[in-house]
Design a protein that fits this description.
The complex is a heterodimer of chains A (about 325) and B (about 270).
Chain A (H helix, E strand, L loop, with lengths): L1 E10 L2 E11 L4 E5 L6 H8 L7 E6 L14 E4 L11 H12 L4 H9 L4 H4 L8 H13 L5 E5 L7 H16 L3 E6 L2 H5 L4 E6 L2 E6 L1 H6 L6 E5 L2 H10 L4 E4 L2 E4 L3 H11 L3 E6 L4 H8 L26 H4 L1
Helix pairs in contact in A: 2-3, 3-5, 9-10
Chain B lengths: L25 H13 L2 H24 L7 H29 L3 H7 L3 H34 L10 H25 L2 H21 L1 H4 L2 H4 L1 H10 L8 H28 L4
The chains are: A alpha/beta (about 325), B mainly alpha (about 270).
């Protein structure tokens, strides 16, 4: 439904988005992941026509954003929950949106109820809202026009744990009914739980994309962490099967999937007290793929305002 | 949970069915922009101030002026000054608050045609200019009826109304233009007030420029308008001077501001 095709956006010598292509399918939640300043927001801003692309195109349902009549009825957008007039009440902000889209006033009440903003809260001015309340209001605004596509930038920012879970359920349900959802985040765990498809971006470039399984498949060889009542016997059993086992804390790190370790333990008659998957998780993958783009230990990338393009680090994701 | 169900049912197609959705009508945008003028506390204060100051200045004039001067035309003329100061601020805020409060992101996502949005804002600001004019008429009529000179309505002329209103609307367009070109509330307001004064000083001090002043300096060209409230209209030359100065100080900045907004990256 959303198709980003070879999108590039430069600011002077700085390339914020570099030849990015991906597609978001209807009925799926697509997570857009990357460290701060990786180009997520710029990409989303180009999608809705707020930033002109330097090269490349974005279409939503086959149309450029400005070609969509009354776009609020088709595409729900939340780019920055704070980008609302501080002096307007929450209800007034939704009312302006509803009026622009030509929706009845009752829609405002429905949306307020949906995002659990009470009447009293809706009458408060935006400047008195907490970040979580702003996010709820922003989500209500995005859903006002009953759109079939949702574009949300960091929607979970500032929500409490219950709020994050609420939003997860909301987006899952929305996609299950056929909607297209693109949400960005710099928090992997948040996206991992809700996204069917993930796009990892670092310093303007896509470093990996796919569903969780296929991403994990490229994250390296199988490994397990195991602790038993007789580690030495277990090591012998594993080595007999050709697996390497090295001590790790109270237990062992084994270069085999948990199922193989369990089988070896069963055959050797060793009692296991703990057996876990030791393969690197998505988080390790995420950090590794975006390693060259993290701010930590990489002063060149510390600011988006860098004039000189930083020398490109080898993208480990490219060969993965 | 029908409230969040997508408008289109799940379909294998990747296209958006927009056949049933008409574009946002222009008048609806105007009504939204009108609402934006008075739905914040700042906006309501400004509107209240315009009405109160207009009424106050007429009352002061009522007591200060000699009885024969208390004519309808003079009451209208006196209200032009405060309205000419405050209405443009309304226009400036209508544009610049979208950028200072960053609501432009929302406005332009709901209506990607920035030209339509600027047009709607212009119409909305002009509507308020007309409303302020009507308010001035009402207050002036009341003042004249209550204690005006004998035959206080004798100087009533359609031309007078047209000139007064025209000046008001031009000043609002000027405010909008500086708002569009600067996209920053304090800068636009300062420019709106300081630039004409600076220009007047330059044109009155530099002797070589004095002859050109009516053609190039906005306040010099507008002076006959104020003077004409009491009576005579403008000469053809004065209209031409009003035209050139309006082009330089209002139309060209407006067009440049328009182009700036079309090209700006909305942050």
């Amino acid at each position: 439904m959303i198709k980003v095709d070879r999108l590039t956006r430069t600011y002077g010598g700085f390339t914020a988005v570099d030849d990015v292509s991906f597609t978001c399918q209807p009925g799926r939640v697509t997570g857009f992941l990357g460290p701060n300043g990786a180009g997520k927001t710029t990409t989303m801003r180009v999608m809705v026509g707020l930033t002109p692309p330097t090269r490349g195109t974005v279409t939503i349902g086959g149309l450029a954003y400005h070609e969509i009549p009354n776009p609020g009825r088709h595409v729900g957008v939340l780019l920055d929950a704070g980008a609302q007039h501080a002096g307007r009440t929450g209800r007034e902000i939704l009312t302006l949106g509803a009026k622009t889209m030509g929706l009845p006033a009752s829609r405002v009440d429905e949306m307020l109820a949906l995002v659990s903003l009470t009447d009293a809260e809706a009458k408060r001015r935006m400047r008195n809202y907490s970040l979580g309340m702003k996010q709820r209001l922003g989500i209500a605004h995005a859903l006002l026009g009953d759109p079939s596509v949702l574009i949300l930038d960091e929607p979970a920012n500032g929500l409490d744990p219950a709020g994050i879970r609420w939003m997860r359920d909301l987006l899952k349900g929305y996609a299950n009914r056929g909607g297209t959802v693109l949400l960005s985040s710099h928090l992997l765990n948040e996206v991992e739980l809700v996204a069917d498809e993930m796009i990892l971006i670092g310093r303007g470039k896509i470093v990996a994309q796919g569903d969780k399984k296929s991403l994990l498949a490229q994250s390296g060889p199988a490994a397990s962490l195991v602790t038993s009542l007789d580690n030495e016997a277990l090591v012998r059993a594993l080595q007999a099967k050709g697996y390497a086992a090295t001590p790790a804390g109270e237990g062992l790190r084994v270069s085999a999937a948990p199922v193989e370790v369990g089988r070896a333990a069963l055959e050797a008659g060793v009692v296991l007290t703990d057996l876990r998957n030791g393969a690197r998780g998505l988080e390790d993958l995420f950090l590794e793929l975006t390693a060259g783009t993290q701010r930590e230990g990489h002063p060149d990338a510390a600011t988006q305002l860098t004039d000189q393009p930083t020398p490109s680090q080898p993208q480990q994701g490219a060969q993965a | 949970m029908s409230t969040t169900s997508p408008a289109t049912p799940p379909s294998p197609s990747m296209t958006l069915d927009v056949s049933g959705t008409p574009a946002v009508p222009f008048l609806r945008l105007v009504s939204v922009e009108l609402r934006k003028i008075y739905d914040t506390r700042a906006g309501r204060w400004l509107l209240g101030a315009i009405v109160l100051i207009t009424a106050a200045i007429m009352t002061i004039f009522f007591f200060a002026a000699d009885a024969p001067d208390r004519t309808f035309g003079n009451f209208i003329g006196i209200s032009a000054t405060p309205q000419g100061f405050l209405l443009p601020v309304l226009g400036i805020l209508l544009v610049t608050s979208e950028w200072s409060q960053r609501t432009a992101m929302v406005t332009f996502s709901l209506e990607p045609s920035r030209t339509k949005v600027i047009g709607a804002k212009t119409v909305a600001a002009l509507v308020f200019g007309v409303l302020a004019f009507v308010a001035a008429l009402v207050v002036a009529a009341v003042c004249t009826l209550v204690g005006g000179a004998d035959g206080g309505f004798d100087d009533v002329e359609t031309k007078l109304f047209a000139l007064f209103l025209g000046l008001q609307l031009l000043t609002i367009l000027q405010g909008l233009a500086y708002g569009l070109i600067l996209l920053n509330t304090p800068a636009a307001i300062v420019t709106f007030f300081v630039l004409p004064i600076a220009s007047s000083i330059v044109f009155s001090l530099v002797s070589a420029l004095q002859d050109l002043a009516p053609w190039l300096d906005l306040s010099t060209a507008q002076a006959p308008l104020f003077e004409s409230f009491g009576g005579a209209g403008l000469t053809g030359e004065e209209y031409a001077q009003l035209g050139t100065t309006s082009l330089i100080w209002i139309v060209i900045p407006f067009v440049l501001g328009w182009i700036r907004v079309l090209r700006a990256e909305v942050k």
